[in-house]
Write a structure and sequence with these properties.
This protein has 269 residues and is mainly alpha-helical. The protein contains 15 helices and no strands. Helix 6 runs antiparallel to helix 7, helix 11 packs parallel to helix 13 and helix 14 runs antiparallel to helix 15.
């Protein structure tokens, strides 16, 4: 069944900007195709939708915000809260969130949240892994589940999932919050697999998680330096690498992210 709201929201934005259907012919979208999309008869491919939004000077993030009635998605809010509490190491709150997820039958999120404060049994790990293996389109929620639960997976599973979302989620790299979670996940994998000694896998992640045309994001750049510093400490020059990630942790402290700096200092010791 076609999700009609995508077209309805697009129509509202277009009308608000007083743009005729013919306006989008310049980006290769004819009037009849656009009209069918707006009336819910068909869906529009991601690349064409992105081009149409750009023509209206509307970002994908703004469009998604309109789709969600000017609110972040409920599940996205929960995963952000989980990750925030992982950084401040608030186990009590994480246990409460896990219980709330269980009671509301959000079992993937329940198991993922549990992985942040206790070791999962094989069945629980398999439930999360199977869910992630079956993903056709990686969204913010799915990336966040992988980010939260990554450390309970084998190196082979991690690399399979990394390759999967590199191949399937490239288009979403242009949306700020997706790009940030995309990179956070990559840098977490660099740190985790460096700890385990998988240099070849880490080399692959480093190569594929850097984009020469990336939009500068100081937060992600500092995370990258922490990850690369730990990589250097693990495989190249111990003291030099350690100084690099310690310097980046200090930078987080200087900008007021005390808990985040403390989190990385603890996990990298």
């Amino acid at each position: 069944m076609v999700y009609k709201r995508y077209g309805q929201v697009f129509n509202q934005i277009r009308n608000q900007k007083h743009l005729p259907l013919s306006f989008f012919e310049s980006v290769g979208i004819n009037k009849s195709s656009l009209q069918r999309f707006e009336t819910g008869q068909t869906m529009m491919g991601f690349e064409r939708l992105d081009a149409a939004l750009q023509a209206m000077n509307v970002t994908l993030g703004e469009y998604e915000y309109f789709l969600n009635y000017f609110q972040a998605g409920y599940l996205e809010e929960i995963v952000d809260e989980v990750i925030g509490n992982i950084y401040v190491r608030n186990t009590n709150r994480l246990q409460l969130i896990a219980q709330e997820c269980k009671e509301s039958n959000q079992m993937i999120l329940y198991h993922a949240c549990r992985s942040s404060f206790e070791e999962l049994d094989e069945d629980s790990v398999e439930i999360i892994a199977s869910y992630l293996y079956d993903i056709e389109q990686w969204g913010y929620f799915e990336l966040s589940i992988f980010f939260i639960s990554m450390e309970c997976f084998s190196e082979r599973t991690i690399m399979h999932l990394m390759n999967d979302f590199w191949n399937k989620a490239k288009e979403m790299y242009g949306v700020f919050k997706y790009r940030r979670r995309f990179l956070e996940t990559s840098y977490k994998a660099i740190i985790h697999l460096s700890k385990l000694g998988y240099k070849n896998s880490v080399d692959s992640i480093i190569k594929q998680s850097y984009f020469s045309d990336q939009v500068y994001d100081m937060y992600c750049e500092n995370l990258r330096r922490i990850a690369l510093g730990f990589y250097k400490q693990s495989f190249i020059k111990v003291e030099e690498g350690r100084k690099e990630w310690e310097k980046s942790c200090q930078l987080f402290e200087e900008f007021g992210h005390i808990e985040l700096a403390r989190y990385y200092k603890l996990i990298l010791q």
